[in-house]
């Protein structure tokens, strides 16, 4: 144990300081107490890149249970929401590790570089379609008009849903969000209703894919079902997860990325002059304001974190946002620099639970922003300050993003 080992201090992540500027707060915590205690959440917080990188690869730490929010409800409410609980228990990454690996292998059959390339022209077409709708008015609300519907259209394509059902997909996705954001019992009821409707809807498509397979996720799942590798229940449950994981996160990345460009006009000018910097720019957007600022883990056996022993059964929050701005690894970590290389951010995780859709999210954001900047040379913000909505603990997302062009 080196002399750098500090004491483990307690912090409140719900203070105005922590919610107003989570990056400044995380810098302070990282400097004072690399392993911190969060008494209100009965959890620990890790903030250093090296510690988080190690934790992401540590087999003694499992993904935290998505259904934690359900455990706080009354026994009667928990019984009422049992179908929701059962569905969440089948999600990849929230199942036991053997099931997780089984699903991951399956989805890797589908999420290949070739699949991402095949979708690229569709992403371009969807982006142009969405911009055509707002072009005559010379203004748009980016979250509603572009960042949110674009990934929904891509996921609809992945799931083999008819184009006409995209709106329905977005509505279901919105209803499912509160599961991840500690929603109240009324929101959980709505999430359960939407999830079960989506299951019924997907079962109809699944039956069709058994008869006539296509090049989509459900066909991949149905082929696996025929081999006995997965059940229909597991297939439809994980399609709901794909909807959420592939939709909300990419939408946030596109919108947050645009705000970063507006806040750094020199970087925006550089990108306009050199559109081929877009892949590097997307990496820097992921680093500075990626869609997952904090992710949860649970220790399955005793571990040492940042030089401190932590017992089994403890919740650990890994602050990816803090790792991504760790001065130990990044020069001038708070600078938004679209030429930054190397850029070893941890926004998509690492190890067993690395994000399957990482390449797809990168490609969608790249194509979307490239077309937006090309088509709208006069693009500028139509707001005084960004319309951030806090997403505790230690996160935020844009409610709206008004622009003119």
List the helices and strands and how they pair.
Layout: H1 16-20, H2 22-32, E1 35-38, E2 43-46, H3 49-57, E3 61-63, H4 68-71, H5 75-80, H6 82-89, H7 97-110, H8 113-134, E4 139-141, H9 142-147, H10 149-159, H11 166-176, H12 185-211, H13 217-226, H14 232-263, H15 265-273, H16 278-289, E5 294-299, E6 303-305, E7 308-310, E8 315-319, H17 320-323, H18 358-375, E9 380-381, E10 387-390, E11 396-400, E12 402-404
Parallel strand pairs: 2-8
Antiparallel strand pairs: 1-2, 3-5, 4-12, 5-8, 6-7, 9-12, 10-11
Largest sheet descriptor: 5 strands, mixed
Instruction: Count up the helices.
Output: 18
- Overall tally of structural domains: 1
CATH-derived topology: Cytochrome p450
Helix-strand category: alpha+beta
| Reported CATH architecture | Orthogonal Bundle
What is the CA-based Rg, rounded? 21 Å
Measured as a percent range, the helix fraction is 40-55%
**Oligomeric form of this entry?**
single chain
User: Widest sheet: strand order?
Assistant: 1-2-8-5-3
Which shape, going by the Cα principal axes? globular
Distance between the termini: 57 Å
**What's the number of extended β-strand segments?**
12
Written as H for each helix and E for each strand, in order along the chain, the element string is HHEEHEHHHHHEHHHHHHHHEEEEHHEEEE
> Could you state the CATH homologous superfamily?
Cytochrome P450
Mean pLDDT over all positions: 90
**Low-pLDDT segments:** none
Return the CATH class.
Mainly Alpha
Strand composition percent: 5-15%
